[in-house]
Amino acid sequence: MSATRVFVARLAGCAVFDPAGDRVGKVRDVLVVYRKNDPPRVVGLIVEVPGKRRVFLSIGRVTSIGNGQIITTGLINLRRFEQRGGEVRVIAEMLGRKVRFNDGSGEATIEDVSIEEQEPGEWEVEQLFVRRPKGASPFSKGQSAYVTWREVRESARTGEAQSAEQLIATYSELKPADLANTLLDLPVARRQEVAEELSDDRLADVLEEMPEADQVEILGGLGDDRAADVLDHMQPDDAADLIAQLPEERGEHLLELMEPEEAEDVRMLLSYGPDTAGGLMTTEPIIVSADATVAEGLALIRRHDLPPALGAAVCVTLPPYEAPTGRFLGVVHFQRMLRYPPHERLGTLIDQGLEPVGADTSAAEVSRILASYDLVSVPVIDERHRLVGVVTIDDVLDYLLPDDWRSHPEDEDEVSKRATARAQLTTGSIPIPTNGRRAGDGTR
To answer: What pTM was estimated for this model as a whole?
Structure first.
């Protein structure tokens, strides 16, 4: 059953299906245009299709909205979405805006927006869910209300940033890579507002998934103290790569503001060439003694915040057990641990066939070793045979892939041809020319 009124925040992440029931993507936002005397009109949806590509779906191509899913006619233009002048994203740009009541009773913040179908294929903003400012009590949340568009007017003070709290709540379930893509789609000013309100650890995770140029831009918009806190939460190798892109003076200043232990790891990584094992490695592998048991090793790799590649094996060394460690003894793969009783000592399970690489080993050689022996990580030692880190498969992929791999477009003509052919088979329709934009045809 198709709903005639729906709140936009509930549409985020909803699956989009074609008439045959095949999933084509998921909703990321709703696009509206403002009108002089009437409520904003919905022009379409921003849909994420496979490959993390965001495309425009005209609201005229939507045949049903309801039960957590959206049904389309099957005709979707797969050209990458580009926002036009006058178009506004509801989730990314409207939520968090201030509005002032026309009756003079004060102002409130938009927390959600409902859209309503006026006639088939014609939707417009109907109601706003708003919240008034907090009361005197520190536990007060502020009174909420449903108002129509005509009962309020938007109020923006010069120089005042738009709140991103509601937007962040809407995208709270997104994985870091997906949130990074979402941020990169936002206007630059809005992107910085969202970055300012993300927690340090969440922003660190997101920055690790962005191209270096975008990392530098966002970090440049943060104060030095906040930037240092975010760098503290990043993986040392990612933090080192980011600091290397900054002007030398600011990079050194941020290192001084970071936690001493984190800064020490980053400085060590910066001392290695970017195309060597030392430049690619992370300094935070799982390190244990030879007397540690299988039970202890498995407990360490179960940590929720541990990247999967680092959990594939534990490194066995002599004390101390932080990089640079005592003499490196070897690695124990987690699959081998699963085959032995919990009390077995890890020193007896070391993989004798895996040799570590030196910190100055070339990235090309590290790549060859990982591929030749089907490994997801390889230990890195210094000239004194101390463990200084591990290079993981994702480190190597980041090095080998082109700089723009996160946003590298597919062959759009081929994708569009396949989508059009599929739509013809599904609906029996004739493809619409894409050399111009007509009302409701979904082309941009």
So the answer is: 0.69
